[in-house]
Amino acid sequence: MVEPKPATRSRGRRGAGADTKAALLDAAKAVFAELGYDNATVRMIAARADVDPAMVNHWFGGKQRLFAAAVLELPVNPFDLLDGLMDGPDEELGERMVRLFLTIWDTDGGRMPALVRSITQQEAAANAIRDLFVNHIVEPLVRRLGSDQSALRATLCGSQMVGLGMMRYVLKFEPLASTDREALVAAVAPNLQRYLTGSLEG
Amino acid sequence: MVEPKPATRSRGRRGAGADTKAALLDAAKAVFAELGYDNATVRMIAARADVDPAMVNHWFGGKQRLFAAAVLELPVNPFDLLDGLMDGPDEELGERMVRLFLTIWDTDGGRMPALVRSITQQEAAANAIRDLFVNHIVEPLVRRLGSDQSALRATLCGSQMVGLGMMRYVLKFEPLASTDREALVAAVAPNLQRYLTGSLEG
DNA sequence: GCCTATATTCAACCGCTGTTGAAATGAGGA
DNA sequence: TCCTCATTTCAACAGCGGTTGAATATAGGC
């Protein structure tokens, strides 16, 4: 009986098909999403990509940089998101925003869950959330709407969205975690709308 | 010149005044609050308590147990909180809830920030939040109000509160982090109120 | 004043993690 | 065909972090 998967593989260059870099990126996204930055180990990621841990340093230059490449570099242009959000009546902005982010979070292969989960462990993750979500999306949005206290409104929206992502994807508290997306949109949108355009005083 | 604080101290039993256990609890709360469970080290906590790291094992039986004793064991009775929240008109329940938790978080020596910060690192922290906040406080509250979908409402409230705690105490996003407590109460209360008693459909 | 139990320090261990340098291997051009 | 170099594996290192067992000094009862 021959071993089906040789525990040790021969060295040297692989065939052109073996795109190690992409395999590492995929594995990194998955493992970071499940465990967060700290608890994910380079060895785990390499094992999942079926590759030697040293490849992380060869292709990315370390765990930190791999995290940046896999999780921090977003596949979408913030301005496109902003334009998509502005397309429609202002009274439904909250609704469009919840739907947009829930959709992205549900479908991009764990990049956003990884971000949310690593938010307390990696300064870079916190900065990414602040820059992308608060500074580049919500704050310009609020400003364009002409509401006062745009910065406070933006962080309030952020607090609701971060909490939502936490509950649904990281903590997985039921029944929120498995509630239908549209039902959640209906439940959360009015509150977001109030943060965007409503009065912030009692 | 003699060294003011001898780097090495003599062994043996200390005076009765040196309450090592309490010192460790205080130090643990502070360090866990600042760094979260994973990034806090036993050696750090011991150093802050001015004590040998081995004392953590002697008095608590390990880092995990120290965390449980310092952060998880709450000084308040959930039923008291519940009673305090019920005392007043139902329409101001959201307001009382935000104010209550912000006050606790601001003043209990970092226990709650430690909980929120460790939420992604320690299963026990997540469970504590679910049990205390969602199951023992908000859910009974909603049920007593007679609203439908009490479980979903409770987790929605949880998402807003967790997000708020995250933004204000962990990420410290401005201007939310340094906004006056009562202003924050005014801004957030109506949204919480809607989760408690409002309609969850569009 | 002695004796035991207890609190405390110290030194070390063990496992894990990110990282590195060298060796080996094969692809692709000359 | 041979040579070069990018790619890959391997082994090891250094550091850290929680935990442990032994040594030691003191408190408090007899």
Description:
- Chain A has 202 residues and is mainly alpha-helical.
- Chain A has 2 domains: 18-72, Homeodomain-like (Arc Repressor Mutant, subunit A, Orthogonal Bundle), CATH 1.10.10.60; 78-197, Tetracycline Repressor, domain 2, CATH 1.10.357.10.
- Chain A has helices spanning 20-39, 42-48, 54-59, 63-72, 78-86, 93-107, 111-117, 123-145, 150-171, 181-197.
- In chain A, helix 1 runs parallel beside helix 7 (111-117), helix 5 (78-86) packs parallel to helix 8 (123-145) and helix 8 packs across helix 9.
- At the A-B interface, helix 1, helix 8, helix 9 and helix 10 of A face helix 1, helix 8, helix 9 and helix 10 of B.
- Chain A binds a DNA duplex (30 and 30 nucleotides) through residues 8-16, 18, 20, 41-43, 51-58, 62-63.
Topology, element by element:
2 copies of one chain form a homodimer.
Chain A: H1 20-39, H2 42-48, H3 54-59, H4 63-72, H5 78-86, H6 93-107, H7 111-117, H8 123-145, H9 150-171, H10 181-197
Helix pairs in contact in A: 1-2, 1-4, 1-7, 5-8, 6-10, 8-9
Chain A binds a DNA duplex (30 and 30 nucleotides) through residues 8-16, 18, 20, 41-43, 51-58, 62-63.
